[in-house]
Specification:
It contains six helices and seven strands. It is an alpha/beta fold. 43% of the residues are buried.
Length: 237
């Protein structure tokens, strides 16, 4: 049974305008939370009901600070923003790709948490996002493996430093989102079917599957410093 309820809790989802972040925002709102999604595009304004929106880039600390100040007290901070980068091998890796990936997902998350600290409630939760490549390696996994492993380590360090605030990380596997192309596109459908057949559960994940893990991290007050794997058995394959 959950230790807390999200009813009337202030939830902020950075990267909440699409994919996993959007699903987290919707699920939290459905449980009675007051949700603010923060994204860098104008479509962040297209929400309604108890989901509010603010436009800010995760790498822009000034814009984030202004957004947090407008929200006020924050009970749960979720970070799902990431850069769209490929899976280059070392010989193909560019400085631009490396810097973009780390600036958005790792450094952006760190500075966002830093900017949010004055507004986080004493028992707030913070949930970061990594990925199964932090512990699954192969040709072309260098960039994402190093990045996601850094996020995992960051969450564990912050869980000690920011206690009693709780810090966790959700580590998704392959998820059927816009990152794989437009919804219904033949290439996306084929890729999801092929990858799903190789997983123990027989399918890839959905944004809603992932959202349940973030909700667990928010609601269970005895979970901190955890890496929550939601990857359909991908680490076993």
């Amino acid at each position: 049974m959950s230790d807390t309820t999200l009813q009337q809790q202030q939830v902020v989802v950075i990267g909440g305008t699409s994919g996993i972040g959007r699903a987290v925002a919707q699920e939290a709102a459905a449980r009675g939370a007051i949700v603010t999604v923060i994204g860098r595009s104008a479509k962040a304004n297209g929400n309604a009901g108890n989901i509010r929106a603010a436009v800010a880039d995760v790498t822009d600390s000034t814009a984030l600070t202004q957004a947090f100040a407008a929200i006020g007290k924050i009970d749960h901070l979720v970070l799902t923003a990431g850069a769209r980068v490929g899976s280059p091998k070392l010989t193909e890796l560019t400085r631009e790709e490396l810097e973009l990936a780390f600036n958005v997902k790792l450094f952006g998350s760190l500075f966002a948490i830093q900017a949010a600290l004055p507004y986080l409630s004493p028992n707030a939760s913070i949930t970061l996002t990594s990925g199964l490549l932090s512990r699954k390696f192969g040709p072309g996994s260098l960039l994402k493996s190093g990045l996601n492993a850094a996020v995992d380590a960051t969450a564990k360090s912050l869980a000690r430093e920011l206690a009693p605030r709780r810090v966790n990380v959700v580590s998704p596997g392959v998820v059927d989102t816009e990152l794989w192309g437009e919804a219904g596109a033949e290439s996306r459908v084929a890729a999801m079917a092929r990858i799903g057949k190789g997983l123990p559960v027989g399918r890839v994940g959905t944004p809603q599957d992932m959202a349940q893990a973030y909700l667990f991290a928010m609601e269970n007050g005895f979970v901190s410093g955890a890496v929550i794997d939601v990857e359909g058995g991908g680490l076993l394959s």
